[in-house]
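Please go through the sequence line and token line underneath and see whether the fold suits the sequence. See right below:
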Amino acid sequence: MDYYRVIFQPSFLEDLESIVRVIAAKDAGAAGRLGELLVRTGESLAFFPERHPCVRQRRELRRCIVAQHYKVFYRVKASERVVEILRCWDGRRSADPAFE
């Protein structure tokens, strides 16, 4: 079974830190659990990363929904067998994040 290498981009890590910091102000335990879930979700993309839908406006990107409100955006580079985890976003915000 072939696996993809997963790379967490700095933009994802910054988003993750921001989300966890906001939640930790009210419940540190919940913040830690959500942070771990988001990272595990990214790591799980090493196997069959195409299982989540493409983003309608940016077909080269995919997204998965985590814990009802959080979106993990990523790019699959099949020729390199790499998954780049790009952003983590609270879906309750009015718009999706910007991508470089």
About this structure: The radius of gyration is 13 Å. Strands lie at 5-8, 54-55, 58-66, 70-77, 82-90. DSSP finds two helices and five strands in the chain. The helical segments are 10-24, 28-44.
